[in-house]
Amino acid sequence: MSTRTQPAAATLRVPGATLHYETRGRGPILLLLPGSGGDAVIFDPIADTLAEHYTVVAIDPRGYSHSTLDSPTPVDQRVDVQADDALSSARTPHARR
What we know:
Elements: E1 8-14, E2 17-24, E3 29-32, H1 44-51, E4 55-60, E5 68-69, H2 79-90
Parallel strand pairs: 3-4
Antiparallel strand pairs: 1-2, 2-4, 2-5
């Protein structure tokens, strides 16, 4: 059984938003993307176990929880933008340990 660790939290500027993400562990990158309005915290129960073998990167999608939008008004969530956000978060220095 794994022990509970505190993830390394950071932010990443992307066009139109500032993304919050958390990393833990070492190894190949495993990107965890919450759905349905969730955030990175939803993965806490499994993240430490996964971090025994992977660098786990969990993000808060733009506009949710700790990830903020540059615009004060809501914007449509687009799959292509979310894909770019996911790729950007996987390319951060924290993810490439």
